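Sorry to interrupt, but I need a hand with the structure work. Leave the record below and I will have a look:
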Amino acid sequence: MDIEVTLNGKKTTLQGKKDEFLADTLRAHGQLSIRKGCNTTCCGLCTVWIDGKPTLSCAYLTFRAEGKNITTIEGVKEEAEAFAKVLVAEGAEQCGFCSPGFIMTVLAMKNELQNPTEDEIIHYLTGNLCRCTGYMGQLRAIKKYLGVA
């Protein structure tokens, strides 16, 4: 099955099976930043933006993306690198496996929320798991990046 999408700003035809999830289709299409950890929408590793909204691609059937605008971390490279530098400076980066999905969620939060409180940040990040950190360094980095420290 072929579907037409805009992937990271470029019109693209994705090929996938009728019952295939978008995470698998995107990885097959070379978007290797898409990670899968749980396959149950509980970890956030597979987060992409669909029409600007963070979406868990491990549970989003590929055919539903027809005509949609899909953004992966490859499509927001400069913004992602800027936030990644803050993560590293705050000592909040560990193995990096969860980073692409986590960063996509943080960038979406920056676009959506103005001057969020700590509670709003924590709520927005619900479902983004990191097995390496205690989250305090990440929270500190997010607040610094958003300018709400």
In short: Residues 84 and 103 are 8 Å apart (CA to CA). The radius of gyration is 15 Å. The longest strand covers residues 2-7.
